[in-house]
Amino acid sequence: MRQLEQRLGVKLVRRQGNGIVLTRIAEAALPDIDRGFDALAAGLRRLRFERRADTFTISADPSFASLWLAPRLGNVRAALGKLDVRIVVSIALDSMLEEGVDLAISYRNSSAKYLASADLFTERVIPACAPVLLRNRFGQDGAAVLDRLPLLHIDPTMGDDVYPTWRDWFTAAGLQRKDLDHGPRFPLTVLAAQAAISGMGALLASELVLGQHLVSNHLVEIARDVPALTIRRRLVWPVDGPKARRAAAVAAALAAVATADGLRLNGS
Asked: Does residue 206 lie within any of the structural domains?
């Protein structure tokens, strides 16, 4: 601070009690300094965007990105034009501009005026477990099947903490269980699914992500008598910027792919 004062030729701070406060001249200059820092931050963002000028960045949770998004990128190649696609993990929607994300696929919606959004599809969130856990158990479609099964949990990823939990499921079913928060926790649905396949417990997860394991009978849906929870996955992108129109085109292309897959907004 002393070196800065010597360089500027003015006193910036003065002692007051046990601390220091800004001098009047420093307080007067503070708004201009703040604007300078804002301009610097804007310049750094512009540099980040320029560095990624040939790249279209999509953020999505890893499980969804690997099982649904990545295999379908070829179907949106025309919408991407000459841009190379880059997939990153989910981020908070209010960080899209700072992180240089062109399109986010999220369970969250945003009311921010600088972001546009569109629904992609609605997913059923279902309980499932390995068939081995159902041996010597009757009524696998009834809610009682989950009375004593160990529960596996998925920790919320950044920006997607609206994902249903076991507590949500038991509340919707009108049931109670004391150890709802007990059991192993996993950062990714794909990891939790492998634990469920090994027989560690029952998992509450998106039917879309569990689909291949249900088809192969490595996992089976349980408690079907209880209506499944649902959650809507959305497409979000900045309304301004050099790639805004491209983002809207990619969002429309992904929505068309979802429709072709037979996924609808009222369920999958």
From this structure: yes
